Amino acid sequence: xxxSVAAHGRFLVALAGGSTPLPMYxxxxxxxxxxxxxxxxxxxxxxxxxSGDPDSNAGAAFEALLSSVPVPEEQVFPWPHLDSPEASAExxxxxxxxxxxxxxxxxxxxxxxxxxxxxxxLFPGTGAALQDGATLVVRPEGERVRLSLGAGLLGRSRTxxxxxxxxxxxxxxxGTLAGEGELDRYPxxxxxxxxxxxxxxxxxxxx
Length: 207
Prior knowledge:
The chain is α/β, with parallel strands linked by helices. The protein is 25% helix and 20% strand. A 5-stranded parallel β-sheet has the order 2-1-4-7-8. Strands 3-6-5 form a 3-stranded antiparallel β-sheet.
């Protein structure tokens, strides 16, 4: 964050949803000394729900982090909840195009990994990791409709960091890192990074 502000005058971050990043968000909430005034906040994915819904990724991040740090309100960009998922995805695409500028890149993208090997809302078997486009509407079987940045935009980041916690995700992480099998089975393989791709995990024996 500090290095990005020094180099570019701002820090652009795409936050992850789910429960894994919440302890990190709460820890960052205790760091008012960081350059929050120069930070712009986005989300890699979201459920198609209002921000007040308990399942909202943005709502969880506001509660854990953003309500406690001085990021200007106009520099926080949750997915809009419009009349349809498609309208919401298109609107967010326009927001990103305007905010990311010519470079079109985040400084940091945070991602999780599900026990089924999904990341953001790119779910196995949906073809989402294979689709073109900056923003996608994904309809996983048995799940709420999801809105997600595409793999190309998620990987158009100087640093991409995967946060993977819990023994239940071992098979998903090992399969993702193995580099074998169909891309639609392990969507995270479609995501690279411009400079650094990092995996933070509490799982032992993961190289």
